Amino acid sequence: MAAPLLDRRVTARRADQVMRASSGAAANYRASNYARSHAEFRSKITAALEEIDESRHWLASLHRHGHATGREAESLLVEVMELARILGASRRTANSNGRRYADRLKPPSPRRRPIPPPFGKHDAADDGEAIDE
């Protein structure tokens, strides 16, 4: 669908944006499958969703101005909406799981030990004078 639109000056920029955004969505979705942490997964899914939304914007713009018509354009608009719903649900689930398990994933806080006095034995009650034995 993009090839004929890239040949026309009026539609070339929008068609290029559709291609870039859809490629970005695919790359971020693929990267989310290899995320090293839950936070990275959520970040990549969110980026993919944003790129899908941008693709939808540019496709709708082409369609609205009569440059992308017919069954193929309408099919792409339906598909981009379905992808947005899928990625949106995935993000909501990931965010919900992140909040639910955040406390379990936090590292334990380090134990605080009292700092020993620098020299000799001291009584905590006095002003720091050494205790004679």
List the helices and strands and how they pair.
Blueprint: H1 2-7, H2 9-32, H3 38-64, H4 70-105
Helix pairs in contact: 2-3, 3-4
**According to CATH, what is the topology?**
de novo design (two linked rop proteins)
Distance between the termini: 93 Å
Order of helix and strand elements from N to C terminus = HHHH
Contiguous uncertain segments of 5+ residues: none
How much of the sequence lies in strands comes to: under 5%
Radius of gyration: 29 Å
Structurally, the number of domains stands at 1
Number of strands: 0
Classification by helices and strands = mainly alpha
Q: What coarse outline follows from CA principal-axis ratios?
A: elongated
Q: What is the fourth-level CATH superfamily?
A: 23S rRNA-intervening sequence
Relative helix content: 55-70%
User: What is the overall number of helices?
Assistant: 4
CATH class type = Mainly Alpha
**Major β-sheet, in short?**
none
CATH architecture: Up-down Bundle
Question: Mean pLDDT, as a whole number?
Answer: 80
Features:
0% strand, 133 residues
Kindly summarize this structure in a few lines:
By secondary structure, the protein is mainly alpha-helical. The protein has helices spanning about 1-5, 10-30, 40-65, 70-105. It has a single domain (about 10-105), classed as 23S rRNA-intervening sequence (de novo design (two linked rop proteins)).
